Amino acid sequence: MPAMTLIEQLIDQLGVSRQQAEGGIGLLLQQAQTRLSPDEFLQVADAIPAVSDLIGKAPRQVGPRPGRLQAVWQRRFSGWGELASLRSSFERLGLDRAAIDKFVAVTGSYFCEQGGAEVETVLVSAWR
Q1: End-to-end CA, the chain
Q2: For the chain, which domains are there?
Q3: Is the dihedral of CA 70, 36, 31, 98 positive or negative?
Q4: Tell me: the pLDDT tens digits for 10-69?
């Protein structure tokens, strides 16, 4: 199963636990799903058939829903609020801010191998 290969790569290359690998990739794919158009996300999903399973491994978001002012701020500043939310979710997995960049690098490379450079570019754009 290709998704397991990605999980194993994260474990091997980053020295994280299975739970951290699954949760981290789930968070990244969840963010990509919300930031990409349906057609763009379909390219990602076609590269790995188990994308929805991986998204399901993301830890649940806790805390209040963003208010109207926060939503405006997030739109205006290109998702900086989403990055803060992603950072706090990674911290709940026991991972620091630097881990996000490492997850992006390993995951982007994996998706490039599976779906080509265009899929990697689409994904990385969702994470910036």
Answers
A1: 28
A2: 2-127 (1.10.490)
A3: negative
A4: 999 999 999 999 999 999 999 999 999 999 999 999 988 788 899 999 987 655 445 555
Structure tokens given for 121: 């570019």
| 86 and 31 Cβ atoms separated by less than 8 Å | yes
Q: Give me the residue label for tokens 């290709």.
A: 2
Give the orientation angle of helix 38-47 with respect to helix 18-35, to 10 degrees: 150
d(CA 71, CA 85): 13
The residue to which tokens 């910036």 are assigned: 128
Report pLDDT digits (tens) over 59-101: 876 554 455 555 454 544 444 455 567 888 999 999 998 999 9
pTM over 0.70, yes/no: yes
Quickly list H helices, 48-116.
51-55, 68-76, 80-92, 97-115
In degrees and rounded to multiples of 5, residue 59 shows phi and psi of -65, 145
Q: Enter the tokens of residue 13.
A: 């290359």
**What is the distance between the alpha carbons of residues 40 and 16, in angstroms, rounded to a whole number?**
29
